[in-house]
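Progress note, sequence design subtask.
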Protein backbone atom coordinates (compact mmCIF):
# COMPACT_ATOMS: atom_id res chain seq x y z
CA UNK A 1 0.00 0.00 0.00
CA UNK A 2 2.77 2.39 0.95
CA UNK A 3 4.48 1.57 -2.31
CA UNK A 4 1.35 2.37 -4.32
CA UNK A 5 0.95 5.70 -2.53
CA UNK A 6 4.55 6.53 -3.16
CA UNK A 7 4.17 5.68 -6.81
CA UNK A 8 1.12 7.96 -7.09
CA UNK A 9 3.01 10.76 -5.41
CA UNK A 10 5.85 10.35 -7.90
CA UNK A 11 3.31 10.50 -10.75
CA UNK A 12 1.79 13.65 -9.25
CA UNK A 13 5.24 15.24 -9.05
CA UNK A 14 5.71 14.52 -12.76
CA UNK A 15 2.36 16.16 -13.47
CA UNK A 16 3.38 19.18 -11.42
CA UNK A 17 6.53 19.51 -13.49
CA UNK A 18 4.61 19.17 -16.78
CA UNK A 19 0.98 20.28 -16.26
CA UNK A 20 -1.79 19.30 -18.71
CA UNK A 21 -2.08 22.79 -20.29
CA UNK A 22 1.56 22.59 -21.37
CA UNK A 23 0.90 19.26 -23.05
CA UNK A 24 -2.13 20.77 -24.78
CA UNK A 25 -0.11 23.73 -25.99
CA UNK A 26 2.59 21.47 -27.42
CA UNK A 27 -0.09 19.38 -29.14
CA UNK A 28 -1.63 22.48 -30.76
CA UNK A 29 1.74 23.72 -31.94
CA UNK A 30 2.40 20.36 -33.53
CA UNK A 31 -0.92 20.58 -35.40
CA UNK A 32 -0.20 24.12 -36.64
CA UNK A 33 3.28 23.12 -37.80
CA UNK A 34 1.86 20.10 -39.59
CA UNK A 35 -0.75 22.22 -41.38
CA UNK A 36 1.90 24.77 -42.38
CA UNK A 37 4.21 22.09 -43.82
CA UNK A 38 1.33 20.46 -45.71
CA UNK A 39 0.02 23.73 -47.16
CA UNK A 40 3.42 25.10 -48.18
CA UNK A 41 4.28 21.82 -49.88
CA UNK A 42 1.19 22.37 -52.01
CA UNK A 43 2.33 25.83 -53.01
CA UNK A 44 0.33 28.07 -50.68
CA UNK A 45 0.85 29.11 -47.04
CA UNK A 46 -1.97 29.29 -44.50
CA UNK A 47 -4.33 32.24 -44.80
CA UNK A 48 -3.03 33.76 -41.57
CA UNK A 49 0.38 34.36 -43.15
CA UNK A 50 -0.67 34.67 -46.80
CA UNK A 51 1.50 37.36 -48.44
CA UNK A 52 -0.57 40.35 -49.55
CA UNK A 53 1.58 41.16 -52.57
CA UNK A 54 0.48 41.35 -56.21
CA UNK A 55 2.29 42.30 -59.39
CA UNK A 56 0.63 45.31 -61.05
CA UNK A 57 1.28 46.73 -64.52
CA UNK A 58 0.53 49.80 -66.60
CA UNK A 59 0.64 49.63 -70.39
CA UNK A 60 1.55 52.79 -72.32
CA UNK A 61 -0.14 51.64 -75.53
CA UNK A 62 -1.72 53.69 -78.31
CA UNK A 63 -4.77 53.04 -80.46
CA UNK A 64 -4.13 51.52 -83.88
CA UNK A 65 -6.10 52.22 -87.03
CA UNK A 66 -8.73 49.52 -86.55
CA UNK A 67 -10.46 48.08 -83.51
CA UNK A 68 -9.38 44.59 -84.53
CA UNK A 69 -5.73 45.64 -84.68
CA UNK A 70 -5.94 47.38 -81.31
CA UNK A 71 -7.53 44.31 -79.71
CA UNK A 72 -4.73 42.14 -81.09
CA UNK A 73 -2.21 44.58 -79.64
CA UNK A 74 -3.96 44.44 -76.25
CA UNK A 75 -3.83 40.66 -76.38
CA UNK A 76 -0.09 40.64 -77.18
CA UNK A 77 0.66 43.10 -74.38
CA UNK A 78 -1.39 41.09 -71.89
CA UNK A 79 0.41 37.90 -72.91
CA UNK A 80 3.74 39.64 -72.36
CA UNK A 81 2.55 40.82 -68.95
CA UNK A 82 1.49 37.27 -68.07
CA UNK A 83 4.98 36.03 -68.88
CA UNK A 84 6.29 38.59 -66.39
CA UNK A 85 3.94 37.26 -63.71
CA UNK A 86 1.59 40.27 -63.75
CA UNK A 87 -1.72 39.85 -61.93
CA UNK A 88 -3.50 43.02 -63.12
CA UNK A 89 -2.89 45.43 -65.99
CA UNK A 90 -4.31 48.87 -66.85
CA UNK A 91 -4.59 50.31 -70.38
CA UNK A 92 -5.14 54.03 -71.20
CA UNK A 93 -8.27 56.12 -71.49
CA UNK A 94 -10.24 55.42 -74.69
CA UNK A 95 -7.60 52.89 -75.78
CA UNK A 96 -10.19 50.79 -77.62
CA UNK A 97 -12.07 52.96 -80.09
CA UNK A 98 -9.60 55.83 -79.76
CA UNK A 99 -9.19 59.21 -78.16
CA UNK A 100 -10.14 62.03 -80.60
CA UNK A 101 -6.90 63.96 -80.09
CA UNK A 102 -6.50 66.98 -82.47
CA UNK A 103 -10.09 66.60 -83.79
CA UNK A 104 -12.53 69.51 -83.93
CA UNK A 105 -15.26 67.68 -85.85
CA UNK A 106 -15.88 70.81 -87.90
CA UNK A 107 -17.59 72.52 -84.99
CA UNK A 108 -17.79 76.16 -84.02
CA UNK A 109 -20.34 77.98 -81.90
CA UNK A 110 -23.49 77.99 -84.00
CA UNK A 111 -22.11 75.85 -86.83
CA UNK A 112 -21.17 72.25 -87.65
CA UNK A 113 -19.66 71.36 -91.02
CA UNK A 114 -20.48 68.39 -93.22
CA UNK A 115 -16.84 67.27 -93.08
CA UNK A 116 -17.01 67.32 -89.30
CA UNK A 117 -20.13 65.18 -89.32
CA UNK A 118 -18.40 62.71 -91.61
CA UNK A 119 -15.44 62.52 -89.25
CA UNK A 120 -17.80 61.88 -86.33
CA UNK A 121 -19.40 59.08 -88.36
CA UNK A 122 -16.03 57.39 -88.79
CA UNK A 123 -15.27 57.83 -85.08
CA UNK A 124 -18.68 56.40 -84.19
CA UNK A 125 -18.00 53.35 -86.34
CA UNK A 126 -14.61 52.79 -84.67
CA UNK A 127 -16.16 52.79 -81.18
CA UNK A 128 -16.89 49.66 -79.14
CA UNK A 129 -20.39 48.20 -78.72
CA UNK A 130 -20.50 46.29 -75.43
CA UNK A 131 -24.23 45.61 -75.66
CA UNK A 132 -25.21 47.99 -72.86
CA UNK A 133 -28.14 50.41 -72.93
CA UNK A 134 -27.86 54.22 -73.21
CA UNK A 135 -28.99 54.64 -69.60
CA UNK A 136 -26.61 51.93 -68.44
CA UNK A 137 -28.09 48.63 -67.28
CA UNK A 138 -25.63 48.10 -64.43
CA UNK A 139 -25.82 44.64 -62.88
CA UNK A 140 -28.20 43.46 -65.60
CA UNK A 141 -25.44 44.09 -68.14
CA UNK A 142 -22.78 42.50 -65.93
CA UNK A 143 -24.93 39.40 -65.32
CA UNK A 144 -25.95 39.13 -69.01
CA UNK A 145 -29.62 39.51 -68.23
CA UNK A 146 -30.38 41.87 -71.13
CA UNK A 147 -32.30 40.54 -74.10
CA UNK A 148 -30.24 39.14 -76.96
CA UNK A 149 -31.53 39.64 -80.49
CA UNK A 150 -32.90 36.67 -82.41
CA UNK A 151 -30.20 34.73 -84.19
CA UNK A 152 -27.41 36.39 -82.19
CA UNK A 153 -25.07 34.74 -79.69
CA UNK A 154 -24.48 37.88 -77.64
CA UNK A 155 -25.23 41.57 -77.40
CA UNK A 156 -22.78 44.05 -78.91
CA UNK A 157 -19.93 43.56 -81.36
CA UNK A 158 -18.05 40.79 -79.55
CA UNK A 159 -15.47 43.01 -77.85
CA UNK A 160 -16.67 42.01 -74.38
CA UNK A 161 -16.31 38.34 -75.25
CA UNK A 162 -12.86 38.94 -76.75
CA UNK A 163 -11.60 40.69 -73.61
CA UNK A 164 -13.02 37.96 -71.38
CA UNK A 165 -11.26 35.31 -73.46
CA UNK A 166 -7.90 37.12 -73.27
CA UNK A 167 -8.22 37.51 -69.49
CA UNK A 168 -9.19 33.87 -69.07
CA UNK A 169 -6.37 32.54 -71.26
CA UNK A 170 -3.65 34.71 -69.69
CA UNK A 171 -4.89 34.72 -66.09
CA UNK A 172 -4.40 38.51 -66.00
CA UNK A 173 -7.10 40.86 -64.67
CA UNK A 174 -7.63 43.48 -67.41
CA UNK A 175 -8.83 47.04 -66.91
CA UNK A 176 -9.03 49.13 -70.06
CA UNK A 177 -10.39 52.45 -71.20
CA UNK A 178 -12.57 52.49 -74.31
CA UNK A 179 -14.90 54.64 -76.36
CA UNK A 180 -18.27 52.95 -76.00
CA UNK A 181 -21.18 53.42 -78.34
CA UNK A 182 -24.70 52.84 -77.13
CA UNK A 183 -27.77 53.93 -78.99
CA UNK A 184 -26.77 57.08 -80.86
CA UNK A 185 -24.22 58.35 -78.33
CA UNK A 186 -20.61 57.76 -77.37
CA UNK A 187 -19.30 57.37 -73.82
CA UNK A 188 -15.80 57.32 -72.40
CA UNK A 189 -15.82 54.10 -70.39
CA UNK A 190 -13.71 51.71 -68.34
CA UNK A 191 -14.36 47.97 -68.10
CA UNK A 192 -13.10 45.54 -65.44
CA UNK A 193 -12.41 42.02 -66.76
CA UNK A 194 -11.74 39.18 -64.33
CA UNK A 195 -10.02 35.99 -65.55
CA UNK A 196 -12.54 33.83 -63.62
CA UNK A 197 -15.80 35.77 -63.81
CA UNK A 198 -15.47 37.84 -66.97
CA UNK A 199 -16.67 41.44 -66.88
CA UNK A 200 -17.52 42.31 -63.29
CA UNK A 201 -18.14 46.02 -63.79
CA UNK A 202 -18.13 48.98 -66.16
CA UNK A 203 -18.35 52.70 -65.66
CA UNK A 204 -18.79 55.78 -67.84
CA UNK A 205 -17.05 59.12 -67.45
CA UNK A 206 -19.43 61.51 -65.70
CA UNK A 207 -17.73 64.73 -66.81
CA UNK A 208 -16.05 64.88 -70.23
CA UNK A 209 -13.45 67.65 -70.42
CA UNK A 210 -13.53 70.65 -72.76
CA UNK A 211 -14.16 69.67 -76.37
CA UNK A 212 -14.77 66.05 -75.35
CA UNK A 213 -18.28 67.20 -74.43
CA UNK A 214 -19.00 67.65 -78.13
CA UNK A 215 -18.71 63.92 -78.83
CA UNK A 216 -19.02 62.13 -75.46
CA UNK A 217 -22.23 61.92 -73.46
CA UNK A 218 -22.19 62.12 -69.67
CA UNK A 219 -22.23 58.85 -67.76
CA UNK A 220 -24.22 58.14 -64.62
CA UNK A 221 -22.54 58.71 -61.23
CA UNK A 222 -23.97 55.35 -60.17
CA UNK A 223 -21.21 53.71 -62.24
CA UNK A 224 -18.61 55.06 -59.80
CA UNK A 225 -19.34 52.04 -57.65
CA UNK A 226 -16.13 50.20 -56.76
CA UNK A 227 -15.72 46.55 -57.68
CA UNK A 228 -14.17 43.83 -55.53
CA UNK A 229 -12.19 40.74 -56.35
CA UNK A 230 -9.68 38.41 -54.73
CA UNK A 231 -6.41 37.60 -56.47
CA UNK A 232 -4.01 35.11 -54.86
CA UNK A 233 -5.66 35.66 -51.50
CA UNK A 234 -5.40 39.45 -51.73
CA UNK A 235 -8.72 41.27 -51.37
CA UNK A 236 -8.94 44.17 -53.81
CA UNK A 237 -11.41 47.04 -53.84
CA UNK A 238 -10.78 48.99 -57.02
CA UNK A 239 -12.36 51.91 -58.79
CA UNK A 240 -11.47 54.15 -61.73
CA UNK A 241 -11.49 57.91 -62.12
CA UNK A 242 -10.97 58.86 -65.75
CA UNK A 243 -8.56 61.67 -66.66
CA UNK A 244 -9.74 65.04 -65.32
CA UNK A 245 -12.37 63.44 -63.12
CA UNK A 246 -9.36 63.21 -60.82
CA UNK A 247 -9.47 67.01 -60.52
CA UNK A 248 -12.97 66.71 -59.00
CA UNK A 249 -12.34 66.55 -55.21
CA UNK A 250 -15.78 65.22 -54.37
CA UNK A 251 -15.52 62.49 -56.97
CA UNK A 252 -12.18 61.41 -55.52
CA UNK A 253 -13.75 61.40 -52.07
CA UNK A 254 -16.60 59.20 -53.31
CA UNK A 255 -13.99 56.58 -54.19
CA UNK A 256 -12.06 56.99 -50.94
CA UNK A 257 -15.35 56.48 -49.08
CA UNK A 258 -15.63 53.04 -50.63
CA UNK A 259 -12.26 52.13 -49.09
CA UNK A 260 -10.47 51.49 -52.37
CA UNK A 261 -6.97 50.07 -52.12
CA UNK A 262 -6.37 50.14 -55.88
CA UNK A 263 -7.14 53.45 -57.59
CA UNK A 264 -7.12 53.39 -61.40
CA UNK A 265 -6.57 56.57 -63.40
CA UNK A 266 -6.54 56.01 -67.17
CA UNK A 267 -5.89 59.39 -68.75
CA UNK A 268 -5.14 61.47 -71.84
CA UNK A 269 -3.26 64.14 -69.86
CA UNK A 270 0.45 64.25 -70.70
CA UNK A 271 1.22 67.41 -68.71
CA UNK A 272 4.00 67.44 -66.15
CA UNK A 273 1.50 68.39 -63.43
CA UNK A 274 -0.31 65.06 -63.79
CA UNK A 275 2.25 63.18 -61.71
CA UNK A 276 1.78 65.53 -58.75
CA UNK A 277 -1.96 64.83 -58.85
CA UNK A 278 -1.38 61.08 -58.86
CA UNK A 279 0.98 61.42 -55.90
CA UNK A 280 -1.70 63.39 -54.07
CA UNK A 281 -4.27 60.66 -54.74
CA UNK A 282 -1.93 57.94 -53.46
CA UNK A 283 -1.04 59.84 -50.30
CA UNK A 284 -4.55 61.16 -49.71
CA UNK A 285 -6.30 57.84 -50.26
CA UNK A 286 -3.58 55.58 -48.82
CA UNK A 287 -3.99 53.53 -51.99
CA UNK A 288 -1.94 52.22 -54.87
CA UNK A 289 -2.46 54.31 -58.01
CA UNK A 290 -2.08 53.12 -61.59
CA UNK A 291 -2.19 55.74 -64.35
CA UNK A 292 -1.93 54.83 -68.04
CA UNK A 293 -1.68 57.27 -70.93
CA UNK A 294 -1.03 56.86 -74.63
CA UNK A 295 2.21 57.95 -76.23
CA UNK A 296 1.72 58.64 -79.92
CA UNK A 297 3.29 60.60 -82.75
CA UNK A 298 1.13 62.52 -85.18
CA UNK A 299 1.87 60.07 -87.98
CA UNK A 300 0.49 57.19 -85.89
CA UNK A 301 -2.88 58.71 -85.06
CA UNK A 302 -5.82 56.52 -86.15
CA UNK A 303 -6.97 56.88 -89.75
CA UNK A 304 -10.34 58.38 -88.84
CA UNK A 305 -8.40 61.32 -87.36
CA UNK A 306 -5.90 61.81 -90.19
CA UNK A 307 -8.27 60.97 -93.04
CA UNK A 308 -5.86 58.34 -94.32
CA UNK A 309 -6.93 54.84 -95.22
CA UNK A 310 -5.50 51.48 -94.22
CA UNK A 311 -5.33 48.49 -96.51
CA UNK A 312 -8.76 46.83 -96.61
CA UNK A 313 -7.25 43.36 -97.17
CA UNK A 314 -6.62 42.53 -93.52
CA UNK A 315 -8.26 44.45 -90.68
CA UNK A 316 -5.71 43.10 -88.20
CA UNK A 317 -2.72 44.41 -90.13
CA UNK A 318 -2.20 48.15 -90.22
CA UNK A 319 -0.51 49.11 -93.45
CA UNK A 320 1.31 52.33 -94.18
CA UNK A 321 -1.35 55.03 -94.68
CA UNK A 322 -1.74 56.58 -98.08
CA UNK A 323 -1.40 60.34 -98.46
CA UNK A 324 -4.66 62.23 -98.85
CA UNK A 325 -2.97 65.20 -100.51
CA UNK A 326 -4.12 65.98 -104.06
CA UNK A 327 -1.85 64.63 -106.76
CA UNK A 328 -1.79 64.58 -110.55
CA UNK A 329 -1.70 61.39 -112.59
CA UNK A 330 1.90 62.14 -113.62
CA UNK A 331 4.46 63.15 -110.99
CA UNK A 332 5.60 66.73 -111.46
CA UNK A 333 9.15 67.82 -112.00
CA UNK A 334 10.25 70.64 -109.75
CA UNK A 335 12.30 73.75 -110.28
CA UNK A 336 12.15 75.08 -106.70
CA UNK A 337 11.54 73.56 -103.26
CA UNK A 338 10.74 75.77 -100.28
CA UNK A 339 9.70 75.11 -96.68
CA UNK A 340 6.81 77.00 -95.13
CA UNK A 341 4.97 76.02 -91.97
CA UNK A 342 6.65 72.61 -91.95
CA UNK A 343 5.35 71.69 -95.44
CA UNK A 344 7.57 70.93 -98.40
CA UNK A 345 6.26 72.91 -101.37
CA UNK A 346 7.17 72.12 -104.99
CA UNK A 347 6.74 74.49 -107.92
CA UNK A 348 5.94 72.98 -111.35
CA UNK A 349 8.37 73.56 -114.24
CA UNK A 350 7.92 76.21 -116.92
CA UNK A 351 7.18 73.48 -119.47
CA UNK A 352 4.23 72.35 -117.41
CA UNK A 353 3.00 75.95 -117.20
CA UNK A 354 3.13 76.28 -120.98
CA UNK A 355 1.39 72.97 -121.50
CA UNK A 356 -1.35 74.10 -119.16
CA UNK A 357 -1.56 77.59 -120.65
CA UNK A 358 -0.41 79.19 -117.38
CA UNK A 359 1.88 82.21 -117.59
CA UNK A 360 1.47 84.32 -114.45
CA UNK A 361 3.15 83.88 -111.05
CA UNK A 362 -0.26 83.69 -109.46
CA UNK A 363 -1.12 80.85 -111.81
CA UNK A 364 2.15 79.17 -110.88
CA UNK A 365 1.43 79.39 -107.17
CA UNK A 366 -2.00 77.93 -107.70
CA UNK A 367 -0.35 74.75 -108.96
CA UNK A 368 1.65 74.18 -105.76
CA UNK A 369 1.20 70.68 -104.33
CA UNK A 370 2.45 69.01 -101.19
CA UNK A 371 5.34 66.74 -102.19
CA UNK A 372 5.30 63.01 -101.64
CA UNK A 373 8.20 61.69 -99.65
CA UNK A 374 9.42 60.75 -96.17
CA UNK A 375 7.58 61.80 -93.02
CA UNK A 376 7.96 65.49 -92.24
CA UNK A 377 9.01 66.85 -88.88
CA UNK A 378 5.33 67.47 -88.13
CA UNK A 379 4.62 63.75 -88.58
CA UNK A 380 7.32 62.92 -86.04
CA UNK A 381 5.87 65.29 -83.45
CA UNK A 382 4.49 63.71 -80.28
CA UNK A 383 0.86 64.71 -79.89
CA UNK A 384 0.95 62.87 -76.57
CA UNK A 385 4.20 62.17 -74.72
CA UNK A 386 2.77 59.58 -72.34
CA UNK A 387 3.69 60.00 -68.69
CA UNK A 388 2.26 56.73 -67.38
CA UNK A 389 3.17 56.04 -63.76
CA UNK A 390 2.59 53.92 -60.65
CA UNK A 391 2.34 55.52 -57.20
CA UNK A 392 2.31 53.96 -53.72
CA UNK A 393 0.06 54.57 -50.68
CA UNK A 394 2.45 57.15 -49.22
CA UNK A 395 2.52 59.15 -52.46
CA UNK A 396 5.91 57.79 -53.47
CA UNK A 397 6.56 57.23 -57.19
CA UNK A 398 7.18 53.52 -57.71
CA UNK A 399 7.58 53.56 -61.51
CA UNK A 400 7.59 56.26 -64.17
CA UNK A 401 6.64 58.70 -65.40
CA UNK A 402 7.37 57.16 -68.79
CA UNK A 403 7.95 59.82 -71.44
CA UNK A 404 8.16 59.46 -75.24
CA UNK A 405 8.05 55.67 -75.28
CA UNK A 406 5.54 54.90 -78.02
CA UNK A 407 5.97 51.12 -78.25
CA UNK A 408 6.54 48.50 -75.56
CA UNK A 409 5.96 50.79 -72.58
CA UNK A 410 5.16 48.41 -69.72
CA UNK A 411 5.64 49.46 -66.08
CA UNK A 412 5.53 46.66 -63.46
CA UNK A 413 5.72 46.78 -59.66
CA UNK A 414 5.27 44.38 -56.76
CA UNK A 415 2.62 45.94 -54.50
CA UNK A 416 2.24 44.96 -50.84
CA UNK A 417 -1.39 45.84 -50.12
CA UNK A 418 -0.83 45.78 -46.38
CA UNK A 419 0.95 49.10 -46.98
CA UNK A 420 -2.52 50.60 -47.42
CA UNK A 421 -3.50 49.58 -43.89
CA UNK A 422 -0.15 50.65 -42.49
CA UNK A 423 -0.80 54.12 -43.90
CA UNK A 424 -4.16 54.34 -42.14
CA UNK A 425 -2.35 54.70 -38.82
CA UNK A 426 -2.29 58.45 -39.26
CA UNK A 427 -4.64 59.17 -42.18
CA UNK A 428 -8.00 57.77 -43.25
CA UNK A 429 -9.72 60.59 -45.10
CA UNK A 430 -13.05 58.74 -45.26
CA UNK A 431 -12.92 57.50 -41.66
CA UNK A 432 -10.90 58.61 -38.64
CA UNK A 433 -9.65 61.75 -40.40
CA UNK A 434 -12.97 62.76 -41.94
CA UNK A 435 -15.04 64.26 -39.09
CA UNK A 436 -18.01 62.55 -40.68
CA UNK A 437 -20.12 63.75 -37.79
CA UNK A 438 -19.91 67.23 -39.33
CA UNK A 439 -19.06 66.72 -43.03
CA UNK A 440 -21.20 64.56 -45.30
CA UNK A 441 -21.11 63.57 -48.96
CA UNK A 442 -24.05 62.11 -50.85
CA UNK A 443 -24.02 61.08 -54.50
CA UNK A 444 -27.35 60.43 -56.23
CA UNK A 445 -27.62 56.78 -57.17
CA UNK A 446 -24.29 55.77 -55.61
CA UNK A 447 -23.82 53.74 -52.44
CA UNK A 448 -20.72 55.10 -50.71
CA UNK A 449 -20.40 52.29 -48.19
CA UNK A 450 -17.44 49.99 -48.86
CA UNK A 451 -18.56 47.04 -51.01
CA UNK A 452 -18.25 43.50 -49.64
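Output:
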Amino acid sequence: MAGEVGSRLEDSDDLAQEPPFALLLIHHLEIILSLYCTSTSRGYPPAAIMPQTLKLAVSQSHTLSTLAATLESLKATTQEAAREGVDLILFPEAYLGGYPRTCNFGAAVGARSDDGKEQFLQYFKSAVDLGDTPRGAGDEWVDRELEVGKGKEYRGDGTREYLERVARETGVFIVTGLTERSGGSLYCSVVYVCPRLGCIGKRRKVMPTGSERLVWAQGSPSTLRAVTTTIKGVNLTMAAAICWENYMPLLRYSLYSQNVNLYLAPTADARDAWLSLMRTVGCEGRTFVLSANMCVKRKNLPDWITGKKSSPTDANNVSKPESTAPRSHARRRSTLTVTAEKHELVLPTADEHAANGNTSLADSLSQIAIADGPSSSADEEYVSRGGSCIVGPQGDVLKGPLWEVEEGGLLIVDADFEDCERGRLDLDVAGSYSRNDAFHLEVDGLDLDPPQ
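The two ends are 68 Å apart (CA to CA). Work on this subtask will continue into the next period as scheduled.
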